[in-house]
## 1
Amino acid sequence: MRSRGASPRRPSSRRGAYFAGVCARTEVLVAQLAPKHTKGASCVSVFESVASLVYLLSKLVNVGAFPSAPPTAPSQPSFFASTLDTIRGRLAGDDACVATYSAFWSELLLAMPSIFTLQSILASLFSHLSVPKAELDGSPLVRGAVKREAQLLGRFVGKLEKGKKDLWDAVTAVILGRNWTQMHARVFVCWAAGAQKGSVDEDALGVLLANTVDIWSSPDHVRHSLLAKHRYVTLLLLTTISYLPPSSATLNALVFSPRFVQSISQYIEHLDPVIRRCGMLVAEELARRTGKKLDFDDWEGDDDGKAWARAARALTTETDANAEVVSREAELSEGGQEGAAAPLDVEDLLTEGIIEPNKPTLTLADADAVDSDDELVGYAFPSSSRTPSPTPSELREIEADPTLRVGKMKIARPVYLAQLGEMIRSTSGLKSEYENQEADKHEMALAVADELIRRKAGYGTELEENAVNLVYGLVGLQDNYEIEDFSGKRQTALNALVACCPEKAAPAIIEEFFKNQYSSEQRFIMLNALALGAREIAGLPLPAAAPQAFILQEPDGVPQQTPAAGPARQTIENTRENNAPPPTLARERRLHVQSPSKSKITEVQRPNADDLAQQLRGTSLAPKVQFTEVAVECFICPLLNRFWLFLRDEQTREARTAQRDSLHRYRGAGAGLILSAPVLAHLLATLGVLAHAARNAPAWLA
């Protein structure tokens, strides 16, 4: 039972009829108020009538009376499904009543309080246009129908003049932000051009061309849009170009636009040949319109979108605005009724053999023959409409083809440390135009980082100003592009930072080490940089093995080598030298044991490049700061202080959650954290290296 006071629910069929009547009466109200609006009525009454109608149309938008697609059921309300035929009749002709009615509708649309409300009305209007089905047909009948719909838009919405910014914003958002057919693209361009024979609105076409090029040349559109969207935007661009005269300044500016030239390269690099030809077609047509010569000479055949490209090229040789307008009645009489179909017989819809299929009988003698793997046959799936993916060999050929690298920017070698930091860690906050070259930028930065940092060590304050930023970038850098020797190059760069600028780099690394955002490998690299950089500053020999050998793990999880291994071996050697016998006794022992050596000619071994670099690093390029001066202040004390603060915070967190169940308790010694066994062992080993290198410091005894 219905509760007291509740309104009865309107049936869906009655609801559709109700809103159809409301929409029809709204259009009648507009037609009645339009003459009064232009006959010099008082300003107050004019304002009230416009405001009331705008409010009514806004309410109709909110209740869904302006759908983005024609309704498929009678219960669905649609303003233009109920009134568009009437609006067509009122806008037909050239008398004063038509001009009054048209101007009043244009004023109502421009008075909408929200641009989204205006976009909803325009999208519903565009979807209810009576456009032909043959999208690339260039016959006079189809061109006349396109011009008829364009004139309807011009009289109902208004001319797309350059000064109407609000209208342009709404129109371009609907035209370029939604999916339309290619026939709609022809209608939109004809509307912008003015839909008049012999005259073209170049200013409006220039605005439409600029907005279309922004979408067409966008890297996201080139890479991710579907084929239907590509063809729609490409035809919109080609049709706009065809309306502009060859001497247009807009076309000449577009030819030399860097963004347009770069987008042509992106289209040519596309793996789908159908989409690739969209860019080639636009490049050829624009060059032809501006008196230049360009021919890709690959348009014969019907595969890979060649037929569509030829049809689009033939369509743009003429403009729809120069055709004669064709009425809907003439279009239906000459082209046949749209949507009407000849009656079909039920037998025509049936496939032979479906009603009474042949049922083969299976005997026991055939069972063994059927039950065999050799008799299995795969299902025959229908061929896909998508372009097949390229094979690995085709990808290698495409990668090696020099013609597909047109306009590709080459990464320049950084000269300053600020450029190096920007390549590793962008701080601008803006998207780069060449984001697809991030891998090349990282590879170049890692290749030159060590050399550039050491070269800048003795020049002014450039290294001190950029050291902290380089530490943040190198520590947080991820191997997303599988760069060769990524860990080794990053390690040497961090070692150079610590060795050449310990006052800035070492505290920054220690500060980052105790943050919870890094993995165990990144923490090992930070500790290695502190240990190896400290040994280099102190003038101690560096390990012959690669720096990343410190973080290699055995299958049981025990490190193969630790940073403290070198100092341990050095201590053993010193102990052995202290316990050696006196020189006289050792000489007498050698005289008894060794036989006198004969004179021999030996080959002089030339030092290799690594040995020379090591010698240079210890002589001419030796750091100006002695490790004994910075060991306690920049290495040992910050590391100890930060560790005890971190340990105190972790114990406090564990104490706060100790009363909870085991699932929700906080544990500071989890896998990959600082207090885990491998990381803590590496931390203590690094502290041992730092203490050993600082044994000559004044604070050593303390």
## 2
Amino acid sequence: QITTLINHKDKPKRSDKTLQAIQRVGQAVNLAVGRFVTVGEAIANENHELKEEMSVACIEARRAGETIAQLTDVASLDHPESDSHITIFTDKTGVVKAARLLLSSVTKVLVLADRIVIKQIITSRNKVLATMEQLEKVSSFQEFVQIFSQFGNEMVEFAHLTGDRQNDLKDEKKKARMAASRAVLEKCTMMLLTASKTCLRHPDCESARINKDGVFQRMRLALEQVIEIVTDSRPNGENEMAPISIYSGIKEFKNKVEGLRENLYFLSKENLSTMLEVILEHTEDFTDSAYTSHEHREHILELSKQAKMELEQLVSVWMQAQNQKTKDLMEDLEVAILKTCQCMNELKREVHNAATSLAAELLKYHTDHMVLKALKITGVEGNLEAVAEYTCKLSEQKEQLVEMCRLLRHVSGTEPLEITCIHAEDTFQVTGPQIISAAETLALHPSSKIAKENLEVFCEAWESQLSDMSLLLREINDVFEGRRGEKRVYLSLPRPGKHNANLKALKPVKLDTEEQAKIAKLGLELHLLTSDVDSETEKWEDQENEIVQHGQGMSSMAYSMYLFTRGEGLLKTTQDLFHQAEIFATEGTKLASALHTLSDQVHDDDKPLLLLEAEKLVSMCKQLQTTAKASAQGKTATFTKVDACILKTRNVMTLLCQLLPLCCKLLRKNKAGNGYLKPAPPWKEDRIRTGTNARTPERRVDTFGIKSLENHVTNMTFLESK
């Protein structure tokens, strides 16, 4: 609204409608500022250490809002020349100054409020740590129950604060790290309960003490990581070393190689060679692994050798092109770029297949949980020799799963999924030895119910992580195939020459700065529509529903088209955009077909409306396809075609925003109780929405399993202490 005021056109004739609109905007800004400031003042009153700073910022914001309202009080000015007071028309500079002051003061309020939230989380963490120290030192069940009850309440508070913070994080990497830490705290809270009870029951048992100490240590590390994320800091000023994966290395390498089309001098051949060396070093994780098949190992080695040869050829042509930029040399360079990128794509696919086939095989093999079952049985029998035998087998299984996680990280495709792989690796590394110590405790005390319960809890954590790995594997495959990822952008996009044997015929064109400015508003509208569509699709419980999948695909493509209007994203040229528009239209036609299928399932009263909307969609997609395929010669004609494609895409997305809730309504009406829709979550619930839809470890962490935890506390009786 402020932007609207600043950018209004100074026309000599001002209609009543224009004057009233300007006044409404000014009043709306002032009212919004008033509501915002009221909240800021309430926060200031509750936090005395920041009260003065917050109050000053609130006063500045309120004053700026009132100034804007005064300057836009122009609705009664039918004859502006008779005006006796200053308005937006006579003093536009005043509005600009007021707007700057408003944005500055609002930012101050937000920063101060953020500092308060961070302080609340740190304070909550400190309470949890203090209570944990007390829990470590207790010597009786009665004392343990009292302190654990307090600990449970503090963990609930910490869960709510960190859940809200996780929702607010914009960085997907930090969001994934926060989710991983909270997942650890969820599982460890239950482990802490049973491990502590076991230690209290068997105070002289060394394996029980080791088991309990491991849980406390892991919880402390998770709490520390949450604070690192919240405060954006590392202990002792260390810099966080981001893990380098083969996938991200290849992505960066290809970007540099393709950048040679635009600029032959922006990097050195040594830089490119070093980047390839790093990638090939990481492929040794696959070729050196005992779990990589002979076939995959041979293919990876062959492709590594081929990549070196392709780069040598590319460097040779590149150096010649720097000295003599002829037409033939530039075409040779284009061929070398395409061949190098193609080789890297094949290498990426090979390591992906090696990692995912190993993962699928291991997960299938371990689904029966035979080793865990055997440990439980032999533990209850008190058979120490058999327990030792099965703990060795569990250690072997742990090594296999840890290696699987390391290889999957290389091909995960997005940073959040990389972090999920690292979290899974850590979980197997830590939980394996904890299961072993819990099994040894049970074998030493086979009649102990609490030792048996403790082993069950650790085995459940292992089984849960294995189940999560199946979901993670599916996400990694989805990203690789372009179905999901960072805003689910399509990964297989056309490059100049890739879909056309005649390199001379294809002239990649980018929008210049002026053209980007002209189309920016249309692009922004498209962006807002993709958010609306994503919001609608996420309301569906059944994410495999055909309508949802087509809607998500169309939203993904529309988003990449929006990025193109900003000169960003994977669509680099107008040719890319037109190709994407064709695929978008095809996806829309498939959605219309799915709507026809749905119409057969709904009541006769609803069918005409659904069919009418489906026909509209078909018609609009045909128009878009025709526009995208039409030839355009020259700069002006090409820009006109770009504008038309974006406009028609926006129109389709507008219709899609109406169609999705309509389909939801009809499904609810016709298939009530079948679980097509999610229930609306309560506002305090801290589920997160990832931009990537990646299944990071945030599931089931909303309140750290506090209900089941409290049930355990309630069921504890002092008879056990006897």
## 3
Amino acid sequence: RTQAEMAHTCRGTINLSTAHIDTEDSCNIVLSNGGRTYHLKASSEVERQRWVTALELAKAKAIRMRNNQSDDSGDEEPASQSDKSELHGTLKTLSSKLEDLSTCNDLIAKHGAALQRSLSELENLKLPAESGEKIKAVNERATLFRITSNAMINACRDFLDLAETHSRKWQRALQYEREQRIRLEETIEQLAKQHNSLERACRGAPGSAGSTGTTKGSVQSSKGEASDEDEETEYFDAMEDAPAFITVTADPKHHRRSGSNLSGASEGHPEDWNLEDSVFESSNQSSYNESCKDLLPKKRRRTRIPDKPNYSLNLWSIMKNCIGKELSKIPMPVNFNEPLSMLQRLTEDLEYHELLDKAVKCESSTEQMCFVAAFSVSSYSTTVHRTAKPFNPLLGETYELDRLEEFGFRSLCEQVSHHPPAAAHHVFSKRGWTLWQEITIASKFRGKYLSIMPLGAIHLEFHSSGNHYVWRKVTSTVHNIIVGKLWIDQSGEIEIVNHKSKDKCQLKFTPYSYFSRDVPRKVTGVVSDADGKAHYVMSGTWDEKMECSKIVQSSHGSTSSEGKQKTVYQTLSPKVLWKKYPLPENAENMYFFSDLALTLNEPEERVAPTDSRLRPDQRLMESGRWDEANVEKQRLEEKQRAVRRRREAEAMEALEEGKDYKGYTPLWFEQKVDPVTGELICVYKGGYWEAKDKQDWSTCPDIF
């Protein structure tokens, strides 16, 4: 690397030009520079020698590059050294290659001269005339080869001189482009600040337009709250993707009269879209409030937790050494957590379980798909303000949510793997459905943002129809990790497949863009049958609501600028399938928990000793005793490391003795090949609820 590159490398980089390379034994290498030392271990002595040779060559090259940079940096200011190194990077590479060619040329000249001497000596010997002529011809060819190599080196020198002549022109052009970019960034930042000021002024203005205007303003305020970034917010200029289809609302009366005359790629019957005969909910507020009342729990549960303490902590001071690492391997204080484990966050996906209860009543598989799609989107509604990190579950940790009497379902989660972290989840509902999944969280910290990628399929099966749905989650991104207000976004696509009827639903989560004219956090999709015929259009946002519109006609529209032909769907009026519950009062001081989230860590009797509710560091954090929680968290993690080291020692011992070692096996789940996806997945093998009835937890490990 050049010095300019070295100045921008991440912490942990060693400058080879001043490094010391040493060997301890037949397999170990010690690489040190100042106060930083790395111990490397090779698999064999041969491999160690290969690494030492490669490191020595790299060190020699680094020393040569450092000397070259010190030679040509004396007449320039230090501030421009980085720009010069960046601009002349190509020239430095060419110079290095030219040096290699010069070395090869010297070797050719040396060996060519020796060859000519040998040939001259052969000519002086008394040989047949024919042999002498052949030797003379070889001598002439060697001379031509040396002349050609000299010409090649001279041509390379001419090329390098030409590149150096044009370097100043390249520098001026690049400097102009940089200045233009800086001016554009400053203009955009100023516009963003003005836009934020206007939004705040608009929300702060007193409502004087009557009751209708007040209601409208309150909706806008709740929508703009999540994007209320401060002045240092980073905006992303992602290009706005053109939608793959256009939706036009049709007149139901017109189509009822002329439905038989409809033509196109897909047709539907408006008569089927009857609110009284359908399980779809209307979009008016009264029916929504009635559905909320029906879902009130019969058992009285807590409605608040202790307020979050106001502890200040510099995030960057901890995260700067963690760039590029797995989030699960970073030792984090509880200051960045919320008092829930990942198992409880996984269970929180069931907050809108009533969507699946309604889906059971659907006679049409495409109509049922609409409710499943709305359910898959609803699981993200709680994340819009939830930027804190849940606790990483300990290996063998479990979490149960028994709502069989209240809502008809019971849920069980277990941490089945620690590296990589994986959790298995199983939900049974006596109202006619079963859901199961194994989720592995892959996460990367990239300096400015954190990407969270859930891996694994979610399975949902309805008992009466046998419809089996499978889908996967999208990527979550936490922005403004270093500077600004944290905010979260969901992006990607979800494909939901009914493996019995082959119906499909394609949902697209549009990433947030400051320059987009679309509604933030937008989700769109189309439900189609096995023949590819579209039946419903899904639309909404992942933080507020999802609507469904029945397609009565589809046709091909105009061709877009990218050359793609858009499909125009003529639909009936949309119906609201799902709408987010309002957050409880004082939610901003309770980690923005929903009503369900407030009850997830509520102490309960008769749960397994491995249940997340009994985790001491999480309980201390919820109580506001963060310093004690940090100490307890370190104790639990060290206890888990000790168990892992003991397990590794047992595995090594078994290997030396030639015995099989099974390793860790989950308690309530077992690995099987999924017949639908063909993947290896942990599924519930039974026994937990029977053990709870008997209060027999003798098989549970001691993890707390």
## 4
Amino acid sequence: MATDAELGRRRRGCVQDTPDAPKVPDSRADSDGPRRGSLCDRHCAAINNVQGDLGELGCHLHRPRVPPATSTPSCCQQHSEEVCESCVVKTTLTAENAVEANKLSNNYKFGFKKWKSHVTARPWEDRSEIVKELYSDLNVIRGSAGSTLTCGNVLYLLLFGWWLSLLYILVAAVMFITVMGAPYGRLCWDLARYFLWPFGRVIQKVEVPKCHQACEAGVGESSALLGGPTPLRWRPRCWEGAGYRHHASTAVWLCLGYPVLALAHGLVCVTAWLLIVLIPVAKLSARATSRVLLLPPERVLIRRLRVTEVPLEGEVILCCYRAANPYYYKYAVDGINVFAVNLLPLVLVTLVLGYVDSPNHLTGSAVKFTLALLSIMPLSYYIGMAIASISAQSNFAVGAVVNATFGSITELTFYITALIKGSHEGNRCYAEVVKSALTGTLVGCVLFVPGLCMVIGGIRHQEQRFNSRSAGVSSALLFLSVGGVFAPTLFSKVYGKLVCGECHNVTQNPLGHYLCHNCHFDLMDNNGTLYYSHVQPLVYTVSILLPAAYLIGLFFTLKTHTHIYDIHISDCHMPGHHHSAVVHWSRWRALVILLLSTLCMSACADLATEHISPILTNSTISQYFIGVTVLAMVPELPEIVNGIQFALQNNLSLSIEIGNCIAVQVCMLQIPILVLFTIFYPTNFTLVFSDLHVYASMFSVVLMNYIFMDGKCDYFQGTVLVMVYFILLAVYFFAPSPSGC
């Protein structure tokens, strides 16, 4: 029986990621009571049929049941006349364990990093068959594998199969020449045919019977399980004088044959792993190197499968049906996505190449700058994973401190290193690039991130709904932050002195029209009285008020008005199942990875700022465009991927919150921190932006609020946001470079 308090909570309103409840017309607008009740009942039936689908998060919408004894024919007759209150439901997200529940809860907290991936190992029985196949070893025989003639298998033949087979034939010839290695030569000959097309064939490890048992076996010996007579070359052989000949053959193999094949398989393994979809080929090569090639030849049996419904005799070492699997983008190693694993060596290459080859003998500045930017992507992923892991395993206070401290560390590291380098060189371009990156992050997170999520999510879902109340809080903070950030700029436009670098008289008349270039508002007139007496105090005041407003927003959403995010996280399981949390990263391990990733991030940011100067000087592209696109959006790629995954699972609220949260943090945390940094370390950074930055930011925020007013969207509205973003990019592309660059 629901308590009065619970019923009160249900009557407050339904705020959830699933579609918002339709509003029932006011009873005062319709005097027909029974007709009003039937309409409300239809709304109730529509809402009660809605069920949130959050995919791999294992989240479901649970509707509170009303006992039959207390149920009434009409929901509106039971509660208030103004609101159909039995339509009010509460979203309950279920997780595998308490740690995952805490992570899901943190995703709905304002100011916390939204993270899609699991921080704990998922129970094997809860995974789909597709995911189970990704993690299975290549030693499982399936009853019905279908045709082996697929595009992926043909791709394997073209990339690896033909030259691997040829290499095995050459090694077999060498083994036969040595005479002592003849048994391994026969093995390589058969492996040459296997690796040319290994699909639908099996490699077994068989037990060697005694010599008299093997010699008594007839030539026509057959196996019903394997479907045919056993070939003579695969019968166990009697080793006369077993000791010396066996050891000599093994020594020849380990010296001449195995190293060459191990090197070839290592090359295949690395290449296939980097291609991701060919990870089964990487597993095939790794297993062949570590198991098959180290076995005595008489214990290796290679057969083509004909009847696979009955288990084969002997241990199955290799059995592969497909060389490619497009679902390997979901593959993870110790909780780390395979893309982040593959990009991690890039960080090492970037650091070694950047600091060892400082004179640019091996590569130029453009290559090093590109490598440094690409290295930021996996480091951002590791930082996000570490923050999510620590927050999920800690209390609210620790999670809040970690998110506030390291949530913007990626962007701040680059901005601060760029300002320091610009101060050392006396180059104002670095400060302008930082301003462009700040504006690009704001515009991209307001337009591009939610727009792209709407488009991709709209492909699967015709219409998506989101929590308009929570989005309204972020929108209000965005309006406040944009107004505060650009207040010094507007002040300088009103009271600054317009100075132009060059003016020409068009009409040759002293009283005629003049054409001026490189005009800007000078704040340093009269020894900088305007700037130091008016603009700078305003900048400091805004830098104090914006973080204070951010803290008020946190207190509002996390303390006093938590019902806005009316989400209940429960640790529920199916009957008979109970799973303890097996975390991928412990708190200490996550902390070490977080610190190391931050250190590497600082080094990569230093390399990027060091090698960006030739690009800014020699490039024909506007510095505005470089800062708004490359420097602004590359560090946010992991967040964009998270937003897309949430949108595909019809959880658009989190997709929108990802962009809004980053945009709010740019204005209310990152910019005040940069202002504070300039107090202790003077740089060329001033909180006065160009007109283009002001107009683009304000227009983006207004458009975003207009799109988000009704709490629902589709792919068309997402397309509008994306198109507007690309139009602004075109404006930045054709805009002239900032003055002084």
